[in-house]
Amino acid sequence: MTGHGVVLPELAIDVTPTFVVASAIATRDFQDVHHDRDKAVARGSQDIFINILTTTGLVQRYVTDWAGPDALVRKVAIRLGAPCYAGDTLTFSGRVTERAGDECVVEVTGRCRLGDHVTGTVRLVLPPEGREA
Hints:
Number of helices: 3
Strand content: 35-45%
Structural class: alpha+beta
Largest sheet: 5 strands, antiparallel
Distance between the termini: 6 Å
Number of strands: 5
Radius of gyration: 16 Å
Shape: elongated
Order of helices and strands: EHHHEEEE
């Protein structure tokens, strides 16, 4: 059942340097802090880190992996926290906080070694048959 309080299974993403660089390029984000370690460190970072477009995409992927390919995402609202650096593991968790008919809201948290990298909500319309949790 996909009712209020349903907990989604966790998803762990290995944030390799290749993942950071490739996802920045894929989202057309050419800021050097996402591909040049020396420049990222010179600007105060520990290493290169994933960009907001990648984070947003991962939040959406996490929820649609659970909801299924026929789910329709209506809104993604996120807030960034701690940076997620190359070498980290980004672990997503979530739970359904609202359910009305075929629409639901999933609260999502993505944590890395420094704490919450991203928190937010995803509002979606579930397919007619729903999704077993």
